[in-house]
Each structure stands twice: as C-alpha cells, then as structure tokens.
C-alpha cells in the first residue's frame, strides 16, 4: 500500500498509509482462492465473512461487499487500519503458507472507505422499528460501540454514557491520527447515530450515573469502560515535571488536539530529547507522536532486545524509518532534575539477557557497575495499563478477578449482577480493538436473545 515518505510524514499528523486505489484493491482481491473452508474467517474474532466480501469486491460490487462486512463488524474502517491481521485472519489465510496471504485488512479498509471516506458512495439504510426495550452502555470504546450497534439494529433503544467529551475510547484518545484519522472514527460512530444510538458525553459511571440506577431504568446494561489506568516505573524522580504516562501524553495530543496549536491550546510539554520506556504499540505511538511534535531525538528505552519487542513489526519499522532510535538492553534507575526541578536526565542500567522467565522470554539481568546518564527533557512511560477504577470502586457488588478486572461469563459476558454485561479491556486487561469488539458482539447477541427473542 502506498505510504507517505518517512521524511515528509514525520512532520505531519496525516495518515501514513494512503490506502489502495480501486484497481489495486481488485487486483489484490483476485488473488483470493475462494476457499471452500475459508480458514481466514476462523482467525477473525467477529467472524467477518471474508471470502464472501472479497468475492463481491472482485466483481466490483462494493455495496454488497460492505453490507457483508457490516453484518458482523460495526467498525470496518477502524479494523482495516489497526487490527493485527498478521496474527488473525491473514495469519490463517492458506496463501500465507507458501507466500503472501491476501491483504484482507487493506481490502476491508478499501471497502469501508468507499462509504465512509471523503467522497462517500450513497448507501441504502433499513429503518428499524423500536420494540420499547432499553439498553445502556457505559463507556464508548470499541466494545460498547459494537454492542450498541447490534442492539440498535435489533430494535432496542440504546443510550451510551461516556466519561470523556468524545465517543470512541482508545480510538480517539490513544491511537494517533497518523494511524487512525479521527474523521474515520467519527464516520463509523455516525453510522451508529444513524441507527438511533444516543450518546451522553461527559458522563462518568460511578460518579454522574450509578450502575444501580441504570440497572433499574434499563432492561440490560453493558460495561465497556476499558483499562486506562497507567502503570508507572516506580523509580525515584518519576514525579518530576517532564515525566508523563503514555496515556496522558497521547490524550493531550490526540483528544486534546495539542498538535493543532494555536487552533487548540491544550498544553503539552514540547520535548527536545525524548525517551520512551516500553516497546509495545503504545510506546511506538508515543515515540512517533513526540517526533511529530518537534523533538530533535526520540529514543525507545527497552530492557530486552529487538527480538522481544512486543510491538507489531510494521509499527517498529515505521518508527525506525521516521528516525526513532532504540536504546536496547537498558533499564531506567532514576530520573534526575535541573535546578528548577525539571527533568534533565535519566540514569540507565545496562542489561544482559539471562535464563527464560515464566513467559518463556529471556529475563533481563543488570550488568553490575554499568550505568550511564542519558540526557532527556521529556520521558514517556508506556509500560501498560490497569482497570479504570472509578466505576468499580463505586460498585462493590460487581465481582472482580484477582487481577482487578470485572469477572464476566466467557461466552456472553454476563457479570455477577443479572442482566449487567461487561466486555473488552475491563474484563481481559489491555488487549486489542477486535477482541473488545468480539466481546461486545457476544454480549449484544445475548442481550438481543433475551430482549428481542
Ligand atoms: C495508544 C494505544 C494504541 C493501541 N493500538 C492498537 C492497535 O493498533 N490495534 C489494536 O487492535 N489495539 C490497539 N490498542 C488497544 C485497543 O485500543 C484496546 O484494546 C481497545 O480500545 C479496548 O476497547 P474497550 O472498548 O474495552 O475500551 P476503551 O477503548 O478503553 O474505551 C473505554 C471507554 O470508556 C470510557 N470510560 C472509562 N471509565 C468510564 C466510566 N466510569 N464511565 C463512563 N465512561 C468511562 C473511556 O473514556 C473510554 O472512552 C491500543 C491501545 C492504546 C492505548
Ligand atoms: S483463506 Fe485466504 S485465499 Fe482462502 S478464502 Fe480466506 S482470504 Fe481467500
């Protein structure tokens, strides 16, 4: 797929991957073998009928292809961009055994963009009759949005209560616009509004609305509040001015549009020498964002080697092409301040890989006496997240797991409170968009089975 060249894109927040043309999409779709038993579908957590939509695309029947995708996936333009397809549908495609799998994600994106992009094709919409039953969603991330879409399409009245001022969850506050443009998310949410879903923003479950009230007023409730509580390093100096969690940094830049100064005046710290701690997708997003915010140098600091980095290969390559550098086998010991108590450096411990730990990855161990001072004025900690606590603290009757997430039935998502369902990161811990959507879909189907039949 064509991309913006690295030097140009590191200076803007426009989308990096530019998408297929119609000719490219049909040429790629024509590689599909139309398998009798399409293994690709078994790799998709929401079971998009991949073979069938590709067959329609080859014939140029875009509307039929889109309707087929939408029959199980309410956010195809999002998934086509951010799903780790190499581990899902494309990882199972038979063509991948000997060569390149069909680029299913790119095709999904192409079809969705035809109806949601800048020059959308017209789309016939069915009208849905309401049956008088009501469902509430807490949180407006991919899990709730998927559940909302299914419930609304089946005639239920759906109210979504979101703590932030925009719906979308991580899709709007976490994933940067150069990977997932915000108008794409808004267009998918527009489809839900067109189905009759109502959004109540700036409305925090456990503060503005209580679960108990919602359970009385609605026939079912779905909780999809995500896992947005940042984990920190727990080392000296972490409270200095200039040390951020990746969540806060990305939220300021993405949701707060700090990149669009002076049109938006959200304050963000403009680092010159930036260090990012962690090596997952969130770390790559933070590092690439810092470059675009004008940093002179950006280093990813990671305790292990490149082989163990958990980020998607494509994200690592894109970051590297844009100029992000890696300080591998290095662990932070403490942050240091200048006379004004601003961050000025981080002391790093050199590491070496030892024996494998419980996860099977080789454990990093410190090399005694080998430390160095690394100048930095902006440090971004991207070590993972935990359950958002507000709703849980206000609702002690909601059963939790040992790890602090909501305990929910594996198949349909029902919690310890009858007719209260939960899914996505608040049940599994930080995972993926499509896994959250899969959970929202299962709960939505169960809610419809109970309320619609
Ligand atoms: C920076 C970043 C990059 C990522 N990149 C990818 C990627 O490329 N591909 C991928 O598949 N996954 C990616 N992920 C993971 C993915 O985004 C999440 O797994 C997914 O969004 C989880 O969906 P969710 O609906 O469970 O929760 P969320 O998306 O977290 O949404 C939860 C929503 O609930 C709201 N909320 C929280 N508490 C309350 C409350 N008490 N009351 C009301 N509302 C509340 C939040 O404001 C939020 O809008 C990324 C995550 C991050 C942080
Ligand atoms: S497994 Fe690959 S080749 Fe077979 S139907 Fe799916 S996408 Fe097409």
Question: Can you give a write-up of this model?
Answer:
- There is one protein chain.
- Helix content is 35%, strand content 18%.
- It has 453 residues and is α/β, with parallel strands linked by helices.
- It folds into three domains: 111 residues, Fumarate Reductase Iron-sulfur Protein, Chain B, domain 2, CATH 1.10.1060.10; 160 residues, FAD/NAD(P)-binding domain; 151 residues, FAD/NAD(P)-binding domain.
- The strands form four sheets. Strands 3-2-1-4-15 form a five-stranded parallel beta sheet, with helices on both faces. A five-stranded parallel beta sheet has the order 6-13-7-8-9.
- Helix 2 packs antiparallel against helix 9.
- It starts with 5 loop residues before the first helix and ends with a helix.
- The relative contact order is 0.13.
- Bound molecules: flavin-adenine dinucleotide and iron/sulfur cluster.
